[in-house]
Amino acid sequence: MTIGNPKSDLSHEGLKAAFAGQSLFEDKTWRLSPEAWPLSSGEVREVERIGQACLEFYRATELLYTRSFEGKNLLRNAELRAPWVADYLDRGKPDWLVRHARSKAVRRTQPMVIRPDLLVTDDGFAMSEVDSVPGGIGLTAFLNDLYAAEAGIVGAGDRMSLAFYEAMASLRPDKTDPLVAIVVSDEAFTYRPEMDWLAERLRGLGKRVYCLHPGDLFPAGDSLCADIDGNPEELDVLYRFWELFDLGNIPVARHVFELLEGGSPLAVTPPMRHFQEEKLNLVLFHHPRLRDFWRENLSKGSWKLLKRAIPNGWIMDPVDLPPNAVLDAPEVGGQPIYRWEQLGDASQKERNLILKLSGFHENAWGARSVLYGSDASREEWTDGITEALEGADQNLYLLQEYKKPARLRHPVFGPDGTLFEMNGRLRLCPYYFVKGDGVELAGILATFCPADKKIIHGMRDAALLPVKEVKE
Q1: Minimal CA–CA distance to 315: which of 81, 69, 82, 114?
Q2: What share of the chain is helix, strand, coil (3-state, %, to 5)?
Q3: Spatial CA neighbour of 187 closest among 247, 253, 275, 111
């Protein structure tokens, strides 16, 4: 087993050469650094606890959705029904996708890879999203290996690659050597190089893992097959790297639905269950009508952790209210509002809010739909609110409080190779792989952006780094 490369050259020229030899992202570049991002042991333990809390949250979300559409009571010792939850989560989705998500064949299935976005603030970690179709798995595994000479790398060597494989293989306990296909859509083509790298790495470790295009798959009776090394073979596990809004461009999608609902042993993860991919789930965590539900269905520790980490948020559903009612929404001028359009009059300080699409849309992933109110002009902010409300019958937007990342410093190479201390802000993306009733933290991708960037994502000016644990 490969355990990393202790001879990695972390100089500017060495790092440039290492990345030049592996195009992990199509046409993407970023800043380089000679050091992994340091986290204390206490911070790493906190990140581990967040992973378990996220798994519990996914399971509770399924219970909430199921009881909502079935019209069942949500609480043990009190009356609470919330059909509006399923209405929100199903909005704009095709009927056949909703039927599949509700079918007994996929009950109690959740993503096997979970990745939240954690902003590092002065008050701790703020969870802005949870992604069940995350990019960066291959990149983070590569970085873990590249920086393996540093002590304490989280997921050093091949641990992250193997954790991915073990999570996939656990879906087919009947197979001693399952055939795993990582299927990357054209919409997600920029991530194909890193998935190719991951599959190649695992084949080097003796695992049957291949990165394929949706067009490489074909039905064969009660099976889904692909040509593997020139021979047609039946797939055991399909790792879906496509968004559900893109199903129309996946030729075998309907066949996969039929196989799963017909009892095929084929395993697909993440499951094609739309409600698990809606950003508004985090907003539902703070919904005043659902507080008792979350307290009943999460462990005490996970409930407290999520309450602290998830920023407050609101679903922008334009509804007519009676004269004596107000919205559960941010205040404007110190007063509650009764129409979402009133947010257009909010001051710059009151616009310390993030506006973004919830899901099932080509603009709902990455930072495509994100608008930071305090950084936008009044016209941009008003236009964003108008767009959100006009499309709410098909695609819901949500508001979240903006938790400002702390200012931090880290050594980074400039374009000419000069090393300097960059002043910036940090996002951590921990990768958790489901393992039995828990999760394994097998790697953390740190994105360090210049301090003037309000929205942190993988940009040219950012540094992408693995994380190391520094003993206290």
Answers
A1: 82
A2: 35, 25, 40
A3: 247
Q: Is the dihedral of CA 188, 438, 125, 424 positive or negative?
A: negative
- Per-residue pLDDT, 241: 95
Query: How many residues comprise the chain?
Result: 472
User: 57-93: per-residue pLDDT in tens?
Assistant: 999 999 999 999 999 999 999 999 999 999 999 999 9
Q: By the 8 A CB rule, do 467 and 36 touch?
A: yes
Tell me the residue type at 62: E
* C-alpha torsion sign, points 91, 369, 186, 207: negative
Write down the H helix ranges in 147-262.
159-169, 192-204, 253-261
Query: At residue 352, does pLDDT exceed 70?
Result: yes
Strand partners, 223: 220
- Listed range (14-23, 232-241, 312-321, 417-426) with the worst mean pLDDT: 14-23
CA distances from 184 to 33, 191, 450 (A): 29, 8, 31
Exposure pattern of 380-404 as b/e (b: 16+ CB <10 Å)? ebbebbebbbeebeebbbbbbbbbe
* Cβ proximity of 169 and 225 under 8 Å: no
Place of tokens 């947010």: 343
Nearest to 209 by CA among 222, 200, 197, 220: 200
DSSP state of 31: B
Start-to-end CA distance of the chain, whole Å, equals 30
Structure tokens at 64: 């909430």
Q: What is the pLDDT of residue 4?
A: 40
Distances (CA, A) of 81 to 56, 88, 260, 313: 21, 14, 30, 21
Which uninterrupted H or E stretch holds 296? Answer: helix 291-297
- Kindly write down the DSSP assignment for every residue of 47-86, as one continuous string: HHHHHHHHHHHHHHHHHHHHHHHTT----SSS----HHHH
Q: Are 245 and 395 in contact (CB under 8 A)?
A: no
Q: Give the pair of three-digit tokens for residue 353.
A: 């809010």
CA distances from 181 to 357, 391, 435 (A): 30, 36, 20
Angle at 250 between CA 248 and CA 256, to 5 degrees: 105
Cβ 117 vs Cβ 127: under 8 Å: yes
Q: Which helix (H) or strand (E) holds 449?
A: strand 438-450
State the average pLDDT for the chain.
Answer: 92
SS3 245: helix
Residue 469 in tokens: 């644990």
Average pLDDT over residues 209-214: 97
Q: What is the DSSP string of 366-428?
A: TTTT-EEGGGS-HHHHHHHHHHHHHTTTTS-EEEEE--PBPPEEEEEE-TTS-EEEEEEEEEE
